[in-house]
Design goal:
It is an enzyme of class 2 (transferase). This is histidine kinase. Its EC number is 2.7.13.3. With about 325 residues, the protein is of the alpha+beta class. The protein has three domains: about 100 residues; about 80 residues; about 120 residues, Histidine kinase-like ATPase, C-terminal domain (Heat Shock Protein 90, 2-Layer Sandwich), CATH 3.30.565.10. The chain contains eight helices and five strands, in the order H-H-H-H-H-H-E-H-E-E-H-E-E. The protein is elongated, with a radius of gyration of 39 Å.
Length: about 325
């Protein structure tokens, strides 16, 4: 018998208990051949083993206790299986087992839903925070270049003697346009420089020249086996691209320290023709045991977005000799 809500479900259990009690009374009469004292005792025991089924919907546990005890007594009294009592016993324990199963399944579903909601929220906040940081840094880099355009246009207009009036007017328009663009960009993105009401950060953004300091800081934090390997013809690069490479290395080192503590890490910069290749690989247990995999690896999303922002791409996965590998290819444009 199943447990159900509503009027039909409420009426089902009293009817079932009453029917089994009637069957138990008939069985008691049959088993005792209608003899007086034994019949009365059998009626009491058999009814106690069946009638509590009527309240099993609201009081399943007490009903199960009474039915179990009375059913055992009925089997002893009758010298064998008391059919009605055993039917009530099986029914009440089936109801208890089913309710426990459904309760556990509902609790597990609620935990899964809560975990998924938490992971989704965490991913969204992590991605939002990483995008905000990327936007702040791009704001700094682009603002520098737009400021240079404005300064160079104004310098050319004032420094070139005998410049035609039309040319001077055009240079003045270039400077005005650059200053307007800079104002609008600061109006839209400048607020991203604020972190929880803190004062804006005014220090220069890091580049590839600061990678040695980053490697030293990583070593000081306990990761002694960190090497920086540089190949190719080293050249000054666009500040935005250098910042992207620096942040990718920084996040990859953080992931290695978190998911492969104590592992040796190689950071390699390869100044190839037309591209800067950045790779960070460790000799840890690999992606199957951490290294940025799973919910804790949201930093990989930020690294991919950084690489895509400068037209590059990023690949992650197991290294050729084990461990975990982060490899980015960034289009190379040499600076002046």
């Amino acid at each position: 018998m199943g447990d159900s809500d509503g009027t039909a479900g409420r009426a089902r259990w009293p009817a079932a208990g009453g029917c089994l009690a009637a069957a138990a009374a008939a069985e008691a009469f049959y088993r005792t051949h209608g003899s007086g004292v034994v019949l009365a005792l059998a009626l009491v025991v058999d009814v106690c083993a069946t009638l509590p089924l009527a309240v099993v919907r609201d009081r399943a546990a007490p009903a199960a206790v009474v039915i179990t005890a009375a059913a055992a007594a009925a089997c002893v009294l009758h010298g064998g299986a008391a059919v009605a009592a055993l039917a009530a016993l099986v029914t009440v324990w089936t109801v208890l087992a089913r309710r426990r199963f459904l309760r556990r399944r509902a609790e597990a579903a609620a935990r899964d839903a809560s975990r998924r909601a938490f992971e989704t929220t965490l991913l969204e906040h992590t991605a939002r925070g990483e995008r905000a940081r990327i936007a702040r840094e791009l704001h700094d880099v682009v603002a520098h270049h737009i400021s240079m355009i404005s300064v160079q246009a104004e310098t050319a207009r004032l420094a070139v003697p005998g410049m035609p009036e039309d040319g001077a007017r055009r240079l003045l328009a270039i400077g005005d346009t650059a200053r307007t663009a800079l104002t609008e960009m600061r109006r839209l993105l400048g607020v991203l420089r604020e972190d929880a009401g803190a004062e804006p950060t005014r220090r220069p953004q890091p580049g590839l020249q600061q990678l040695l300091d980053l490697v030293d800081q990583t070593r000081e934090s306990g990761a002694a086996g960190v090497r920086l390997i540089v190949g190719g013809h080293v050249a000054a690069l666009d500040p935005g691209l250098e910042l992207t490479a620096y942040r990718i290395v920084q996040e990859a080192l953080t992931n290695a320290r978190r998911h492969a503590p104590g592992a040796a890490v190689d950071v390699e910069l390869d100044y190839a023709p037309g591209a800067l290749r950045v790779s960070v690989r460790d000799n840890g247990p690999g992606p199957g045991h951490g290294s940025g995999a799973g919910p804790a690896g949201h930093g990989l999303l930020g690294m991919r977005e950084r690489a895509a922002a400068v037209g590059g791409d990023l690949r992650t996965g197991p290294g050729p000799a084990g461990g975990f590998l982060v490899e980015a290819t960034l289009p190379l444009e040499e600076g002046p």
